[in-house]
Task: inverse folding
């Protein structure tokens, strides 16, 4: 993997010199409230092959690099200041430098230019440089209520796991056991990267709770930055547009072009080494291979959830009661709780699938499901914890379910999972070894063997392939 820094650097230079001008120009043509790639998977329905989107009229007609305001962008230089450029630069200022009279944080405090996130290593370096870095105040400090110390001492959690304390409002059907008066809980979550997401994902936040980039930014400014001045709609629009056009928000040229044209969806890299090619088999949209004995359930095992151009949605081969294009699943991260986060007891009421006593699995009164979890994820937003129905096989897209992560550029954005519990890609794949031993075991503790058992070679192959994704 020696070659990667070189490749990344070359791509970075390429982006900056050629694309700033083009992207700025495109920004002028794109209405920020209309996300160009919004919901393309919904159109996909049950079709296996990712659909090519029709070209958006305004952009396609003139090609990607279309000069605006009658001025030709010059590669390598900022184009002459026109309204579109001014908006771009103002968006950049709002994202990188504006504190809104708050605790000193900006978006860049947590979404760095290089990786779109912050790792524990980054946090440690920043702490060495400046122990008063605003990363360590408020919900970045050790205070469990997220009220923060900002004294440069209570930084253990940030230095160790780089997680942020997120306050989540409970759905009306959810309460903490014994404390119905508490309507908001605190969970510890990693910072998802802003690479690729603002342009190519309309599911925002790890639990999908924010409807738009503007609403998301307002939440961040109010909660993370503790703003003391009001924020205008225009400022929110400019932040959104900046995140959809700035070169640092794309993992590769190919992905940027896809975002702007809706065409040429990036495919799976072929792989050069034998190991990379074997790793690729896990990501192909194929059913299990029954032509061999015993059947091979490993092929396509990762693609079942990491399918589509951004590798973040289910395909038709996931053997669960969810349609292709589903964006949430549980992969047992909260269940294993390797991060060792505090576990809370929840009561979910009005559960549709707990009404029949014959199917009432947890021994509680009808319609009530009790669960313990460090972070139930999507279920806190939808109020549903009964996703083991329709049974079998269940849908598993609510309780402890999180947004299926996109995987392009993944080698750069460690640590992984919603609680940052996997430090490296090797840790991720070891997690999936344990995951598949449980979910692919036909008879639980019975004599039948799990269908998917990842061995050491599989694990190396998968990691080798993941490192190719850009
Ligand atoms: C204190 C650190 C912090 C700051 C400051 C911050 N964010 Fe975030 N950001 C997070 C965390 C943590 C999440 C995920 C939280 C969750 O899902 O509950 C997130 C999520 C996001 C997402 C959604 C990512 C996804 O995969 O769905 C976007 C977009 C985003 N932030 C943009 C911004 C913008 C714009 C700003 C500035 C206005 C900002 N953030 C400020 C920590 C931060
Ligand atoms: C059942 C659906 C499902 C399957 C199968 C699946 N994933 Fe995932 N993947 C997810 C979900 C959901 C997340 C986010 C989980 C969380 O944070 O709790 C995720 C997260 C990840 C992440 C971390 C991304 C990040 O930015 O934190 C990687 C890497 C990953 N998966 C790779 C794989 C590989 C490799 C395989 C096959 C061995 C695989 N996945 C199989 C659903 C799935």
Result:
């Amino acid at each position: 993997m020696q070659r990667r820094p070189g490749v990344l650097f070359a791509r970075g230079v390429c982006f900056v010199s050629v694309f700033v001008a083009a992207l700025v120009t495109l920004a002028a043509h794109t209405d920020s409230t209309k996300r160009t790639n919004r919901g393309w998977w919904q159109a996909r329905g049950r079709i296996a092959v990712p659909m090519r989107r029709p070209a958006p009229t305004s952009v396609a007609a003139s090609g990607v690099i279309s000069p605006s305001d009658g001025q030709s962008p010059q590669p390598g230089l900022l184009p002459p200041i026109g309204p579109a450029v001014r908006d771009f630069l103002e968006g950049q200022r709002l994202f990188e430098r504006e504190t809104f009279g708050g605790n000193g944080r900006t978006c860049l405090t947590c979404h760095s230019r290089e990786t779109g996130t912050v790792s524990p290593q980054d946090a440690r370096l920043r702490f060495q440089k400046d122990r008063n870095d605003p990363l360590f105040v408020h919900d970045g400090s050790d205070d469990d209520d997220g009220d923060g110390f900002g004294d440069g001492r209570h930084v253990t959690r940030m230095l160790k796991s780089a997680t942020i304390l997120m306050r989540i409002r409970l759905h009306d059907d959810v309460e903490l056991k014994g404390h119905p008066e508490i309507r908001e809980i605190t969970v510890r979550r990693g910072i998802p990267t802003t690479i690729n997401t603002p342009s190519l994902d309309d599911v925002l936040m790890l639990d999908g709770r924010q409807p738009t980039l503007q609403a998301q930014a307002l939440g961040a400014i109010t909660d993370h930055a503790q703003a003391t001045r009001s924020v205008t709609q225009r400022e929110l629009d400019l932040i959104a547009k900046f995140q959809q056009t700035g070169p640092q928000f794309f993992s590769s040229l190919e992905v940027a072009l896809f975002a702007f044209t809706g065409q040429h969806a990036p495919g799976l890299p072929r792989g050069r080494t034998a190991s990379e090619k074997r790793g690729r088999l896990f990501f192909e949209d194929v059913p299990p291979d029954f032509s061999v004995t015993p059947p091979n359930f490993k092929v396509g095992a990762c693609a079942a959830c990491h399918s589509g151009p951004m590798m973040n949605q289910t395909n038709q081969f996931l053997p669960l009661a969810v349609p292709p294009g589903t964006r949430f699943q549980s992969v047992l991260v909260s269940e294993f709780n390797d991060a060792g986060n505090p576990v809370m007891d929840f009561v979910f009421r009005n559960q549709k699938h707990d009404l029949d006593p014959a199917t009432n699995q947890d021994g509680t009164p009808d319609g009530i499901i009790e669960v313990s979890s460090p972070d139930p994820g999507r279920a806190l937003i939808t109020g549903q914890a009964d996703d083991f129905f329709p049974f079998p096989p269940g849908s598993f897209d609510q309780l402890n379910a999180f947004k299926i992560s996109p995987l392009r550029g993944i080698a750069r954005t460690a640590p992984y999972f919603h609680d940052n519990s996997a430090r490296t890609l090797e840790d991720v794949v070891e997690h999936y070894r344990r995951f598949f031993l449980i979910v692919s075991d036909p008879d639980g503790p019975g004599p039948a063997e799990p269908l998917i058992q990842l061995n050491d070679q599989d694990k190396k192959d998968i990691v080798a392939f993941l490192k190719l994704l850009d």
